[in-house]
């Protein structure tokens, strides 16, 4: 019988280890996953792989040649169904990645349909299926809820017009790549994290040599703090009307430049004559559609027409749109649906009704509508991101205050390109909190066409 001293010597370290692992699981999930979760998940996968594939319906009958070899060379009467072949297994700080070679008769959609069953079978938090190339898929397993506390990956592959904005639920970075998806729409109710998404986007763009143009008809409440890094800012519908006209003229002048050099877009031009890319950020787009008088209606129609023109043609000229709002559909008025069709990138946060979710992702990824409607209100920043390819994923933006985003813009003010056409709308530096009034915008002169 074990005496009390031996029990104390053995039990105390075991209790301390168990307590430490329990604390790590709750407060440091990366550490717990690396020490315990990853070895357990890897072992469970290796032991149960074939049986799991079989019960999940992911096995197929072998080819006639393989069946012939089994019967005549291996001398076995029974020919077992064939699961996908495991090509590579990699562990990470957040989960496990497995590359599979699909046998004839299986397609990636079959594996995607079984992802929830695979998640429960292997005891992981989520399983995301990504097509690597024809015949190959990658299972991206996450061992814990990586969206509970967002920590962006240290290494993110980026390009000349791409910005890491949020974290996907598979542990990879969600990158806003303007060369692949030139225009995007962001929707979300109040306190859903929509502003946080925009802050991270602007903070990332501030590091790039691009011109940032803001339209914030709430008198610049959201975007005025980014003034040192903005090439133009409109804070009223009247200013927005004039600014959109200027951007359309800028687009047409760039088309003349492209035509003169026989180039398809600005990236085909030599570096010394290539104009700076322009990213226009529209906050609360519904403010551009609201009208009170007949004169306002004429201005609204003109602004919507200019926005649609930019959405249809501006990509080649290096002008990109980021449109943000709480709701965006045909009920806003004429031209809203046509504009939305040009915004191929979609990011939808928590919304107040099913119709808004369908406006955001229903036309590009119908199966994502249910996921949007299940976003909890106590987790701001979570959203569903998708594009016209039909692919979508849950994401969450890291915490970034307005002051931190403004400081990043001020630190990179020297990267603001000089675009003469936008000079009349260049904002003045904001007044610090506690000053008697806001610094006024530089208004366009009456002589400006």
Structural description of this entry:
The protein is an alpha/beta fold. The protein is built from 13 helices and 14 strands. It has helices at residues 4-27, 29-55, 64-72, 108-113, 115-122, 194-205, 237-261, 286-289, 294-313, 336-342, 354-362, 369-373, 402-411, and strands spanning 85-91, 95-101, 126-133, 136-142, 162-168, 173-177, 184-187, 211-216, 230-234, 278-283, 319-325, 345-348, 382-386, 392-396. It has a ten-stranded mixed β-sheet with strand order 6-5-14-13-12-7-11-10-8-9. It has a four-stranded antiparallel β-sheet with strand order 1-2-4-3. α6 runs parallel beside α13, α7 (237-261) packs parallel to α9 and α9 packs parallel to α10. The chain is elongated, with a radius of gyration of 27 Å. The termini are far apart. The relative contact order is 0.11.
Keywords:
single chain, 449 residues, alpha/beta, ten-stranded mixed beta sheet, four-stranded antiparallel beta sheet, 14 strands, 18% strand, elongated
Percent in helix: 25-40%
Order of helices and strands: HHHEEHHEEEEEHEEHEHHEHEHHEEH
Unreliable parts: 433-449
Range of strand content: 15-25%
Tally of strands: 14
How would the blueprint of this fold be written?
Layout: H1 4-27, H2 29-55, H3 64-72, E1 85-91, E2 95-101, H4 108-113, H5 115-122, E3 126-133, E4 136-142, E5 162-168, E6 173-177, E7 184-187, H6 194-205, E8 211-216, E9 230-234, H7 237-261, E10 278-283, H8 286-289, H9 294-313, E11 319-325, H10 336-342, E12 345-348, H11 354-362, H12 369-373, E13 382-386, E14 392-396, H13 402-411
Parallel strand pairs: 7-11, 7-12, 8-9, 8-10, 10-11
Antiparallel strand pairs: 1-2, 2-4, 3-4, 5-6, 5-14, 12-13, 13-14
Helix pairs in contact: 1-2, 6-13, 7-9, 9-10
